[in-house]
Amino acid sequence: MTDQLSVSPTALVDLEELDKKHYLHPTTIPKIHAEQGPKLSFTEGNGIYVKDTKGDEYIDGLSMLWNVNLGHGNQELANTAKEQMTKLAFSSSFAGYSNEPAVRLAEKMTSMAPGDLNAVFYTSGGSESNDTAFKLSRFYWSMKGKPEKKKIISLKQGYHGVTIAAQTATAIPLFHQFSSSGISDVFHAKPHLTDCELGGRSHPDYEGSIRDIVEKEGADTIAAVIVEPVQGSGGVHMPPDGYLEAVRKLCDEFGILFIADEVICGFGRTGKMFGVDNWDVVPDLMCVAKGISSGYSQLGGVLIKQEIRDTLVQYDQVLAHGFTYSGHPTACAVALKNIEILERDEVVANVKSMEHELNAGFEYLKDKHPTVTKTRALGLLAGFELYKDRDEEIPFDSSILPSTEVVEECFNRKLILRPLASQVGRNIVAIAPPLIINKRQVED
Ligand code: PLP
Q1: How far is CA 212 from CA 74, 195, 209, 250, in A?
Q2: pLDDT value at residue 401
Q3: Quick one: average pLDDT of 222-230?
Q4: Non-local CB neighbours of 273 within 8 Å, separated by 6+ positions
Q5: Region 155-161 average pLDDT
Q6: Is the model's pTM score more than 0.90?
Q7: Which residues does ligand 1 sit against, CB inside 6 Å?
Q8: How confident is the model at residue 1, as a pLDDT?
Q9: Which of 5, 145, 352, 376 has the most CB atoms within 10 Å of its CB?
Q10: SUPFAM superfamilies under this entry (predicted)?
C-alpha cells in the first residue's frame, strides 16, 4: 500500500464534480451519486490488487465484475491489444468479411467447448449474447417449420443481463422495478427442483417448476430454457447434483433447446474450463463473455451445436442480426491470448486448489463469527450468508442489511466484495477473486 497520491487533490475534486454532473452510472443509486459523487475511482492495477486515485491499494475480491480473471496489469494481454490495433484496428464481419483473430478464436473456442458446439456468433458482451441466443433459438425452430416455438423459460434469481430480452429473462425483481416492460413470452421457473424436472408431480413445489410451465404452456410453444450453471448475481447458488442433467433430460424429452449462460462461469471460474463441465451436460447453445478476455476487451459470443449451425446455414437470405463489433479483431486477439495464458499457466488447476484454500478460510470465518453460514465455493465462484441465528436459520430483520455492512467494513479494510441482496430476507456476500490468486493472498 502507498500513501502517494496518483491524482493531485485539485484534479481529484474536479474529477468528482465532473463525474457527478456528466456521468450517469449503471446499477448505482442516481440520487446518492448526484449528491455524493463517486465512491472511488481506480487508476491502476496489478494482479489481484487495484489502486485508487488516493494511492490506496485494495484486494479485488470480485475480479471487478466477475470478469478480470487473469488479474490486473497483464502485460501480455496489453501488448497483444497494442499489436493488433497497430496492425488492423477494425474490420467488419458483416457481408462475409472476416479477420484472422476472429477465425482463430472461433476454432480455438469450439475445440475447447463440450460436445459438438462447433460454431460461434460473436457479440460485444453477455446481454447481447443472451439476446442472440434467444433469437437464434427462435429462428432455428422457424427453420424447422415450428415458428410458434418462441417462449423462453429462465430461472428465478437468474441474471442474464439488461438489454430488453435478456432483462426479461433476468428474474431478479430489482431489474424489473427499473423497467418493467420486456419482450413477451418469457417465464420464470422455480430454480433447482431436480425431482420436479424429472417428473415428480407430487412434489410440493411442482407448480411453477420448468416442467409445470412446459406442460401448461405446451412444448410446441417453447423455444428454449436458459440456465446459469451456477447462479451468480442472484446469490451464488449452486445447482444440486443432478439438476442440470435433469433439465437437459427434460429439454430432450420435450424438444426444447438448452441454453447455458456461461457469462460468469466460463473460462475457468468454476475450476473447469466451462461451468457445465462440472456436470455431465452439453448445452445446445452456450453464451460467453466476461472471462473470455479477462475484461481486457469487450467481447461475447454464442457457441452453437453442429445441428443448429447446419440448419441455420440452409438459410439463403441475409441472417439480419449482428453487432458492429461482432468479431472485433482486437477483442478476439486478446481473447486468444487470454486462453493461451489460461492453458500455458495451468490457471484452471490453480482455481481448483484455491477453492480448497477459500473453503479453509470459510471454516475459520464460521468459527469466529456465529452469524456466518451457508458458505459455498465452486472454484473461485463463492459466497456466504449471514443469519441472526444460523442454527435455526432465523434471518435478520429486513430493515437491517448486515451483508452490506460487512462489505462496507471489508472495503474500509481494503478488500472489495459484493453484497447480493437480491432475495428478500437473505444476506449474501459474493467472493470471486482473479483466478491467479495464490494461497497467501486468499489467507489475507
Ligand atoms: N449473464 C450473466 C450470468 C451475467 O452475470 C451477466 C453480467 O453480469 C450477463 C449475462 C450480462 O453481461 P453484460 O453485462 O456483459 O451484458
Answers
A1: 48, 12, 5, 11
A2: 84
A3: 98
A4: 112, 266, 267, 342, 348
A5: 97
A6: yes
A7: 125-127, 130, 159-161, 228, 232-233, 261, 263-264, 289
A8: 41
A9: 376
A10: PLP-dependent transferases
Q: Point out the domain boundary residue: 326, 344, 362.
A: 344
Per-residue pLDDT of 283-319, as tens digits, reads: 999 999 999 999 999 999 999 999 999 999 999 999 9
160: CA distance to ligand 1 center in Å?
5
Query: What's the rounded Cα separation, in Å, for the pair 125 and 112?
Result: 20
Residue ranges making up the domain that contains 365: 40-73+346-443
Q: Examine residue 389 and state whether it is found in any structural domain, yes or no.
A: yes
Amino acid, res. 126: G
CA of 145 to the centre of ligand 1 (A): 32
365-391 pLDDT tens trace: 999 999 999 999 999 999 999 999 999
Determine, yes or no, domain membership for 52: yes
By CB neighbour count within 10 A (0-12 exposed, 13-18 middle, 19+ buried), where does 440 fall? Answer: exposed
- Answer yes or no: is the ipTM higher than 0.95: yes
Q: Which three cell numbers stand for residue 232?
A: 451468480
Please tell me the predicted confidence (pLDDT) of residue 11: 79
- Using most ligand atoms within 8 A of CB, pick from 64, 122, 124, 127 the residue to mutate for ligand 1: 127
Alpha helices in 304-370 (DSSP H): 306-312, 329-344, 347-368
User: Ligand 1: which residue has its CA nearest to atom 7?
Assistant: 161
Mutate to test the pocket of ligand 1, among 122, 152, 160, 164 (most ligand atoms within 8 A of CB): 160
Residues 297, 377: one domain? no
Q: Clarify whether residues 60 and 156 are in a common domain.
A: no
Q: What is the CATH number of the domain that holds 237?
A: 3.40.640.10
Q: How far is the CA of 300 from the centre of ligand 1 (A)?
A: 10
Cell numbers for 276: 457445465
Q: How far is the CA of 1 from the centre of ligand 1 (A)?
A: 32
Is pLDDT above 70 for 269?
A: yes
Count of structural domains, the chain: 2
CATH number of the domain residue 370 falls in: 3.90.1150.10
Same domain, 335 and 350: no
Whole-number percent of the chain with pLDDT over 90:
89
pLDDT digits (tens, 9 = 90+) for 3-47: 455 677 777 778 889 999 999 999 999 999 999 999 889 999 999
How far, in Å, is the centroid of ligand 1 from the Cα of 369? 32
The ligand 1 atom nearest the CA atom of 161 = 11
Q: Are residues 330 and 352 in the same domain?
A: no
- Using the mean position of ligand 1's atoms as its centre, give its distance from the Cα of residue 64 in Å: 13
- Distance from C-alpha of 230 to C-alpha of 420, rounded to nearest angstrom: 15
The ligand 1 atom nearest the CA atom of 125: 15
CA distance 409 to 416: 10
How many angstroms separate the alpha carbon of residue 317 from the centre of ligand 1?
Answer: 31
pLDDT of 399 = 79
Residues 252 and 272 in one domain: yes
Closest ligand 1 atom to the C-alpha of 124?
Answer: 15
Query: Within this chain, do residues 122 and 207 fall inside the same structural domain, yes or no?
Result: yes
